[in-house]
Amino acid sequence: MNKLITDIDIIKEGIEEKETCETVKVSLDKDTGKERKLYIESYGCQMNFSDSEIVTSIMQKSGFDTTSDFNEADVVFLNTCSIREKAEQTVRHRLNQFNAVKKRKPDMMVGILGCMAERLKSKLLEEEKVVDLVVGPDAYRDLPSLVAQVDSGHKAVNTFLSKEETYADISPVRLNSNGVTAFISIMRGCDNMCSFCVVPFTRGRERSRDPHSIVEEAETLFNQGFREVTLLGQNVDSYKWSPEINNKARLERSEVSEVVNFAHLLEKVALVSPELRIRFSTSHPKDITDEVLHTMKKYDNICKYIHLPAQSGNTRVLDLMNRTYTREWYINRVDAIRSILGDSCGISSDMIAGFCTETEEEHQDSLTLMDYVQYDFSYMFFYSERPGTLAAKKYKDDIPLTVKKKRLSEIIAKQQNISLARNQMDIGQVQEVLIEGFSKRSDEHLQGRNSANKVVVFPKKQYQKGQYVQVLIKACTTATLSGDIIDQ
After folding, report:
1. CA 217 to CA 212: how far, in whole Å?
2. H, E, C per residue of 311-355
3. What is the pTM of this model?
């Protein structure tokens, strides 16, 4: 029932699938006898998925149980993405499906949450008659009152963007949880004005969450049996918390008085337990520091994997994208990763084909950058103009679709070759793997991920999810490693 598109899937699928967004449907059926039931779907990035866990917590405290069947729901929420046009089209198609349900169940309430809600605001209520409420990513605390407003016969909208909201005091309800891995949101918003991106306009300005609350959440998750957390932010490397930056009210709730940057935060979370793995996403090439890399090296439980989106391998195109770094700077950061953490550290990327005015020679620069870095995997797309972005206002989307698809196909083919070569390097190694559950193809096999974020499949024997095992890697594809557990 649930469909979650992973990094590896994006490598394996065809060109047309590059515009597909992640979709996660709530699988948590909780029936405590409350009068109403909530169904929620999340589209897009991990931040949206994390937000849906916050929304569910708020709604449960407001008298809702949860269901994995929207036909049983009294309230349906779609937590939306605006990063690409296909994501919005998918949501509109889903609304048509819900409209059919609403015709036979007129009291069912449908709400649009997240980035698409923020971008289109009340226009959604006019265009999509099935929509009853529209709520932006900083207004989730207001959901109970907005639902009550709809109950009274009115449409409801709140897309106010906050300069302070982090939801630090709300304990998320873990949706679709395997009980082993979990997300922790450490910051919200984005101050980077990449010309192709809508996020600064849909999620507001960047603000960091109190580090004490982050560590406390990690401790709670570990005590509940989780063994891996991913620290989430649009740009985790710019995380910064201090009394001067954060207001007095936040300081009074915190036990932390010193300046805390991302390297410090990583260390604090790593010290929760050596049995708790730490990942993070996403890093920005302009901000990732040697201090972060040395902190990663210092602690074995900080996974040796970095998602470092390049977007392009050409400096002129990067300037048009307003990425604020050059090809040379990006290579410098990759060299630092390899020097400090070694060649086995996993690196992944985002790559956009056919950005405005990109020449064939500049496209080749992206391919040669891929050759240099040797990414383990990548998210790969052709450029699609998003209304309201700086690129839409300043540049003409002048690369023909056929050219965009051709360039994307070359990027995908290049990455497939590199991914296979990188995985072949792991054959013969013994790697520590955290078991996340059964293999997708067989209940006789388990799967988990190694430190470099690669999926590893192996016979289950007597082992169970949540355990760390040593696996001898014996074979690979472009997407997966396979091997046998070395009995301990």
Report:
1. 9
2. ECCCHHHHHHCCCCCCHHHHHHHHHHHHHHHCCCCEEEEEEEECC
3. 0.87
